[in-house]
Amino acid sequence: MTRISYLDFSANEPERALKFYNIVFGWQIKKWEGPFEYCEFKTGEPNEPGIDGGLAKRSKPEESLTPFINVPSVDDYASKIEANGGKVIQSRTAIPGVGYMVVFKDTENNRLGLMEEDQSAK
Fold it and tell me: What pLDDT, on a 0 to 100 scale, did the predictor assign at position 60?
């Protein structure tokens, strides 16, 4: 069974949003060392229930919060999504050193993502 494993936030003013989440909820925030501007946050200790996430500058008005579901193959699940009435809106994209992602809309127009972990992704 697959699980929601990550929440991806976007913001018009990332610094303002990160400060908000740090002050209000105490989330630990650090800049990601990857090839684009992104900050990761930890919402608790690894042994506690919960989901971590990250935040980037909003690039499209419709971007807001995207839950990511870990899957063994983004390609296989993208096919299942489209065969069952969903729509892939961002095809397979490599995140160097992390894996591959796909963004889709379900039958109710909700935006979600798929993540296939693969540290060799380039």
Answer: 87
- Distance CA(51)–CA(27), nearest Å, equals 11
Are residues 75 and 56 both part of a single domain? no
Residue whose entry in the numeric block shows the structure tokens 């229930």: 49
Global pTM?
A: 0.87
Structure tokens at 37: 């501007």
Sequence-ordered alpha helix ranges (H) in the chain = 14-25, 74-83
**Which domain does 47 fall in, by range?**
1-61
- For the stretch 8-63, pLDDT in tens is 999 999 999 999 999 999 999 999 998 889 999 999 998 999 999 999 999 988 88
Antiparallel, parallel or unpaired: β 99-105 and 87-95: antiparallel
Contact call for residues 38 and 32 (beta carbons, < 8 A)? yes
CA distance 4 to 113: 9
76 and 110 assigned to the same domain: yes
> What is the number of structural domains in the chain?
2
Angle at 54 between CA 51 and CA 96, to 5 degrees: 110
